[in-house]
Design a protein that fits this description.
globular; D-Maltodextrin-Binding Protein, domain 2; five-stranded mixed β-sheet; three-stranded antiparallel β-sheet
Amino acid sequence: MSARHIPGAPGPASGTWVATIRKCAILLIAAVLLNAVACSPPRPGHPVIGAKNFTEQVVLGELLAQEIEAKSHLKVERRFYLAGSYICQQALVAGRIDAYVEYTGTALTAILKQPVDRDPDSVLNTVRSLYASRYHVTVAGPLGFENTFAMVIRGDDARSLNLKTLSQAAPDTPQWRLGVGYEFEQRPDGLPGLSAAYGLRFAGKPRTMDLGLLYRALNAHQVDMIAANSTDGPIQAFGLVALEDDKHYFPPYQAVPLVREEALARWPQIQVALKALAGKVTADDMRAMNEAIDGRHRDPADVVREFRAGKGL
């Protein structure tokens, strides 16, 4: 008995049916590949510099970008305000940015998940080794300053209570409200360990907010202590006091550019710019640039251009 033939369909001996299936398979594979390409990170013909979402990071991102442009004549794309360290790290590893400036203590504990180490050279060596082996990222020479966490209070409170250190402030914290950025409350080098080290207890849960709002909240008496950064311009501008970390809880936080090895191979001129910037930025330099932007509302690109000119870059 012959096989049943459906009218209008190709016969069993016909090659049309096989050809049709093959053509559909090719089209399906092509669609999958096209979708994969569309979802992959863009590969522009120029370096992309990232930065986190606070003033100092924008300054440092602009500093990298301007120096690369000056040393290479490459066009540099800026992708700033990328939230915190975790977002920048994901963007770097995915190839969506080619470089950004990180702090060694943050890299060690928050990104690499290593134990706290308080020796600056040891931290730098560990960070360099692990970024290279895990992520194919080069940790360039430190820019020259450290930006550690600073527990900041109002100047009037510091004077009236005669407070200079975190140990001295600990007995008063049960009456204080704390303000922190989004990462500090959960970081391994952040609030839980700091509270344990000093016996800090606060009135209610910490108020979590964007880093740029912390000083406004402190000055408005919405909070009584904030977890800020030691190079923030408003500390001096507003007459605030950064309490001394007298138990040396925080690890070192040297500012270092992180750069994808692929980007360095593609644009060797970036290395020239990184070497020119190594050791050029002091903590006072950073405070002055931060204050010029936050306090005097100057354009970050202009502030960086003036800094570079003053340093002969």
